[in-house]
Amino acid sequence: AADAMEMLLLSVLGPALRCDWRLTSTEVAGITTVVFAGMLLGAPGWGAVSDKRGRWSVFALSLCLMAYFGLLCSFSPDYFWLVSLRGVVGFNIGGAASSFTLLSEYLPQQHRAKVLILYNLFWGLGSTFEILLAYLVLPTLGWRYLVAFSSLPLFLFMLTLGFLLASGRAEEAAAVIDQIARENRRPAMEGRPAVATSDRGQLKALFHPFYRRTSFILFSLWFGVAFSYYGIVLVSTEIFRFHQDCFSTAQSVTVAHNTTESVVDNSCCRGLQSDDYTAMLISSLGEFVIIPVNMLTIDALGRRATLGINYLLTGVFFGLTYLCVPKAATTAFLFLIRAHSAGIFNTIYIYTTEVYPTVIRSLGLGICSAMARLGSMTTPFVAQVIMPDVSVLLAFISQSLFSLALAADGASAADGASAADGIQKD
């Protein structure tokens, strides 16, 4: 939830600073891109350390640093300091995936998919809360207070980290497992855990002949889902500015040059309005709606169908959003894109943790997350540069066609899910 708040902050921070600091479109996109660049570096780095040293130490340290530098961002005196500090925040967000890896390792196969999908409920809660917070704080107190308040939940969540998880400490691990067995009134574990040392956290293991094809397919899918998901997050704050004529809400202003003439104000410096927040909130609710749908499809239809359907519908609704239709219809399209792109994220996280073994699981998730950050770094220039400065149509075509192209690729990757489950059993 705290991770989602830091990420969704980007969708409202750019438009606010565009007006306050008179930023160009490229500078606005840079605020978002630098966070994803930090994640690009942080995700594989934290993932490798997590496989070598354990999940807890990485998760706790990255959480502390994320909270500290997130708070410092609110004191940024200028654009350089803001993007520098946001880059450090992004680097530490890359370590947050350790929590997902940790939970996946505790869950038995028959319950794993459903519980991990429910886990994403908290991302939706965090993103929705951030939009409500922005609605209350941004117009009255300004962006600095919003940035500060967005970091506070991280400090609160650090108080919940009172547990031990370390790599390579077999006896302590055995004691924890025995305690779990006693509390659940189950028989004690037979034998003792062994310490695996070969290929632990080694990048080359991801490209072993057994994993190579799956790794490359996953890289493309992670790139694509981030490109689509964060594309719609950023487009949600921009699209209504470009559809003013469709909604019949363009405002006229009077300018005097010896004559009085009515013109349309097309200034890029337009603060978010209450209906913009409403549309963003409605689109965020799509993340909740897709959760029960994914819970039904991921086991009943499999990873292949779930990924393929969500990618296909994301592309279709992205294309429909460009159409000049009533505002309610545009908001509905945003809702459906957000839902299906979140559904891709839900599924691909689960598949990735299933397909890689324990010794490279965090590293594999980290590298895939890094590929997603490449997609995330690309999408601000589509939503915040190409859309306002080049062509709205070109921006939507690129988003739509990319998702449609990956629908078949998603089906291909998911074919390996049954094999991955077999690896887990072995």
Tag the structure with descriptive keywords:
426 residues; mainly alpha; Growth Hormone, Chain: A; two-stranded antiparallel ribbon; 2 strands; disordered C terminus
- How many domains make up the 3D coordinates? 1
Count of distinct strands: 2
SS element count, helices: 18
Summing up helix and strand content along with how strands pair, one would put the structural category as mainly alpha
Specify the biggest β-sheet: 2 strands, antiparallel
CATH architecture identity: Up-down Bundle
Spatial sequence of strands, sheet with the most strands: 1-2
Structural summary, described in words:
It is a multi-pass membrane protein. Belongs to the major facilitator superfamily. Its main location: membrane. The protein has about 425 residues and is mostly helical. It has a single domain (about 1-190, about 200-250, about 270-425), classed as MFS general substrate transporter like domains (Growth Hormone, Chain: A, Up-down Bundle). About 75% of the residues lie in helices and about 0% in strands. The chain has 18 helices and two strands. The protein has helices spanning about 1-20, 25-55, 55-75, 80-95, 100-105, 110-120, 120-135, 145-155, 170-185, 210-235, 240, 245, 275-300, 300-320, 325-355, 360-390, 390-415, 415-425, and strands at about 250-255, 260-265. A two-stranded antiparallel sheet has the order 1-2. Helix 3 (about 55-75) runs antiparallel to helix 5, helix 14 (about 300-320) runs antiparallel to helix 15 and helix 15 (about 325-355) packs antiparallel against helix 16 (about 360-390). The longest helix is centred in the C-terminal third of the chain and has 32 residues, at about 360-390. The protein is globular, with a radius of gyration of 23 Å. The two termini are about 35 Å apart. Residues about 250-265 and about 415-425 have low confidence and may be disordered.
